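Deviation from plan, reported transparently: iron/sulfur cluster complex.
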Amino acid sequence: MDYFSKMSDAEYNQFIEDIIQKKSLTDDDIRSMLSATDKAGLQRMFDAAVSVKNHYFGNDVYLYSFVYFSTYCKNQCTFCYYNAKNKIDRYRITPEELRTMCEELKNEGVHMIDLTMGEDPHFHNKPENLLEFVRIAKEVTGLPVMVSPGVVDNDFIQALSKEGANFFALYQETYQEELYEKLRAGQSFEERFQARLNAKAAGICIEDGILTGFSKMKLSNGEPVSPSVSDDIESAVASIRGMQKADPDQVRVMTFEPQPGTPLAGTTQASDLMELKVISVLRFVFPDRLIPASLDVAGIPGMVDRLNAGANVVTSIISADSKLEGVVNFDRDVSLNERKRDAKSVIEKLNEMGLARGSQENFEAYLNRNKSS
Ligand code: SF4
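Because the crystal trials were delayed, the predicted structure below was used instead.
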């Protein structure tokens, strides 16, 4: 029987209490949870994760506005639409365009502005250009700012800290190094990990993230990406343990979605059930941390599933009339006015679910509490 199906009600309640008290799970506990198939047992797992989330965050949900300000990138990640070799239309917005966008974003009800870029040399090699963007976003919106600049050196991170950047997002994607090399081709595993540590040491909150859905990944010749590491459960166990090492303030998982024009384009899309299970396990392993429900994989219906699995943040919110891209962009072919990943649509759905936009004060208290811990 599945991990949660076999528990009595008393054991189930004790499990939730133990997790709230930060009792650790073993690797076998995690394996057993992730291999669950029984519907009732899965529902119990999702409900337990929501109970733990409620203990720490109540009904509050935090919202991040996604500003993908440059889709240029020098890297060749095999899973990514924006990898340097993909022949796609790209853009880089100007400081004036960012200022105009931020004027609109400041009244939308989001808690943080997420400034994301590919490793675009215009910013990556010239920190002053990114620092100017952080300054504009903070000045115009008065909100905390997350930066996702890729791997940058410690001087760059110190400058971001000085400029007031609040969050540094950098996803390892996997802690199985053999698989990492296939995904983030030509990039150092260690340098990526170290950049996150440097940001934390500089007083910036950090986010790490992993992918799931590897078992379906295939290269264009039909070969599995990496036969020895294609098991999604073992991969998730290794990656959850890897993420714990840097004590991140926010942890995420996303289902790999095959992207046109990339080496993994021919892969079959995995269902997002494993992502939902991993979200619950993340809630058990990181009970008091922020866990996103991204709109980028399955829009608002997908957000509902992820919040019901234990997430408490909504990311990849894009204004109704914005022409900017998401990262995975499940809705790339959808017209702008049908896209529905704007803050108003999100807040309406939260209210229908009995959840609420959390206060800005509580969100900033979270950022500061972790800054000083
Ligand atoms: S994942 Fe990031 S670093 Fe890798 S190719 Fe895409 S934009 Fe560039």
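DSSP finds 14 helices and nine strands in the chain. We consider this an acceptable substitute for the interim report.
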